[in-house]
């Protein structure tokens, strides 16, 4: 089956009947009709339909090397700089559909699986490693246009650097507790599956820091695998009204705890297990980091453009563009936007072939970008709050505009540029992006997208080649 459609995506997820719990209750019936998921599933379905738009087909798809049918560009293994640019254009085309609010749009995990499969030869000949299974799954996902979620993180029980669970206790962090001729048996929990329960598959991948080989593995299983449960946080969908909740009604991506209750992972879906060295190095040795950061920053550029547009729309609406502090704050967003654009292009221009003949965008350049965004996005939220001032609080609901209050609202809430209803819609958007549960989750999400920002900075410091510049200074002093 080639690139899928939105209708087929929704039908597939409904037919899974995965074990998903919200507010202490299991979801019954079609998950696409549940208030916590209907908006985001509809938005994701629209992304799949874009692959069949004749005006976008050249960007959104490419010809499968196996079937000669059109498949999603996010699965493309780049061999040329043009391939890298095509990937970016496709990522940003999808991001434009949600203005970058869908942090886990399908292209993210498609990119991850593509990157891991591109580096599968690293696993060759290593104990309990099965590179051919990883490649087979990548091809299966590509040819069927699967929707994937993932879990890379263990529960936060004790974050001391050398904490180990008592082996006599029931496992907390998911681990392999048994093996048989059918596969491995996994028990315990993992965090934090965004969109858990509304994807075809769950990919579980050890991204490093593993001290017990039983906790180190990589595999994928259907979201409805027996014994697999998704426990969701509280939904941040404020309501179905796009006037009142323009973002959460469309783009709220649920986060979930994944519980494995003696889950059988068939051997054909196990990519590696019980290998500490591989568990702790594959993420860095593979092309996972450069490609996944390239995808993330490409999306974040679109999100930053939206933030800039929102800020300028507020400035125009209430006529505050003449103030120097407003100009300075807006320029911060412009500088961040142009910096991110430049870094992504630089990463493509300086891309190099890895040992498996896949063209990787420059990782160091992208690491710089990934260190910038967690800081600037939090600042964006502050800027919107500061320039909005009291306007971000005077935001009556859609029902108020349909009541006998309409005349008062029209008179007192108009602005220099907009009528009252348009102005309130604009400021409700600013409020939901920065002050609602949805908005604050977005900030936390971007802040920790690749982990602790301090550790990201430390990694950049230790891996960045500084010796040449030190040498220049030393030679100057001679």
Task: Set down the secondary structure blueprint.
Blueprint: H1 6-16, E1 20-22, E2 25-26, H2 38-50, H3 57-60, E3 61-63, E4 70-72, H4 81-98, H5 106-118, H6 131-144, E5 148-151, E6 175-179, E7 183-194, E8 201-205, E9 217-222, E10 228-232, H7 248-251, E11 255-266, E12 270-273, H8 276-285, H9 288-318, H10 324-349, E13 352-353, E14 359-360, H11 363-388, H12 398-401, H13 406-412, H14 420-434, H15 437-447, H16 453-463, H17 467-477
Parallel strand pairs: 1-10, 5-8
Antiparallel strand pairs: 1-2, 3-4, 6-7, 7-11, 8-9, 9-12, 10-11, 13-14
Feature tags:
478 residues; alpha+beta; Butyryl-CoA Dehydrogenase, subunit A, domain 2; Butyryl-CoA Dehydrogenase, subunit A, domain 3; 2 domains; six-stranded mixed sheet; four-stranded mixed sheet; 17 helices; 14% strand
Please sum up the structure shown:
With 478 residues, the protein is of the alpha+beta class. The protein is 48% helix and 14% strand.
Tell me what the structure shows.
It is a single chain. The chain is of the alpha+beta class. It has two domains: 270 residues, Butyryl-CoA Dehydrogenase, subunit A, domain 2 (Beta Barrel), CATH 2.40.110; 191 residues, Butyryl-CoA Dehydrogenase, subunit A, domain 3. The chain is 48% helix and 14% strand. The protein has 17 helices and 14 strands. β6 and β7 form a beta hairpin. The longest helix has 31 residues. It is globular, with a radius of gyration of 24 Å. The relative contact order is 0.11. The mean pLDDT is 95.
């Amino acid at each position: 089956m080639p690139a899928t459609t939105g209708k087929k995506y929704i039908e597939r997820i409904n037919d899974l009947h995965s074990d998903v719990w919200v507010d202490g209750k299991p979801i019954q019936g079609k998950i696409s009709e549940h208030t916590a998921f209907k908006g985001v599933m509809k938005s994701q379905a629209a992304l799949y339909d874009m692959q069949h738009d004749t005006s976008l087909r050249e960007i959104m798809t490419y010809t499968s090397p196996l079937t000669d049918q059109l498949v999603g560009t996010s699965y493309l293994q780049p061999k040329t700089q043009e391939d890298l640019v095509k990937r970016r254009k496709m990522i940003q085309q999808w991001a434009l559909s949600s203005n970058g609010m869908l942090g886990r749009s399908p292209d993210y995990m498609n990119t991850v699986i593509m990157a891991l499969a591109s580096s599968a030869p690293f696993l060759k000949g290593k104990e309990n490693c099965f590179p051919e299974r990883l490649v087979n799954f990548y091809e299966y996902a590509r040819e069927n246009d699967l929707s994937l979620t993932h879990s890379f993180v263990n529960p936060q029980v004790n974050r001391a650097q050398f904490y180990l669970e008592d082996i006599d206790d029931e496992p907390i962090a998911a681990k392999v507790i048994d093996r048989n001729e059918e596969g491995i048996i996994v028990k315990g929990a993992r965090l934090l599956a965004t969109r858990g329960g509304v994807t075809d598959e769950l990919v579980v991948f050890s991204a490093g820091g593993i001290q017990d080989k039983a906790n180190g593995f990589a595999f994928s299983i259907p979201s409805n695998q027996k014994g697999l449960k998704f426990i969701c946080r509280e939904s941040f969908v404020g309501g179905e009204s796009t006037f009142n909740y323009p973002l959460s009604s469309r783009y709220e991506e649920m986060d979930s705890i994944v519980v494995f209750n003696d889950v059988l992972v068939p051997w054909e879906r196990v990519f590696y297990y019980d290998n500490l060295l591989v568990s702790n190095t594959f993420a860095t040795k593979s092309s996972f980091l450069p490609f996944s950061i390239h995808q993330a920053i490409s999306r974040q550029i679109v999100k930053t453009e939206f933030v800039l547009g929102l800020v300028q729309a507020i400035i125009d609406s209430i006529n505050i563009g003449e103030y120097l502090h407003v100009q300075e704050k807006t320029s911060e967003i412009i500088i961040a936007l142009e910096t991110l654009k430049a870094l992504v292009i630089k990463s493509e221009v300086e891309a190099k072939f890895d040992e498996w003949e896949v063209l990787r965008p420059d990782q160091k350049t992208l690491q710089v970008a990934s260190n910038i965004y967690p800081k600037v996005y939090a600042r964006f939220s502050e800027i919107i709050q500061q320039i909005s001032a009291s306007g971000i609080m005077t935001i009556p609901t859609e029902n108020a505009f349909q009541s006998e209050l309409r005349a008062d609202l029209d008179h007192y809430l108009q602005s220099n540029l907009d009528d009252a209803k348009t102005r309130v819609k604009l400021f409700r958007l600013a409020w939901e992006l920065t002050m609602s549960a949805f908005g604050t989750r977005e900030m936390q999400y971007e802040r920790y997208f690749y982990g602790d920002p301090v550790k990201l900075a430390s990694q950049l410091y230790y891996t960045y080649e500084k010796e040449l510049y030190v040498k220049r200074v030393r030679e100057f002093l001679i």
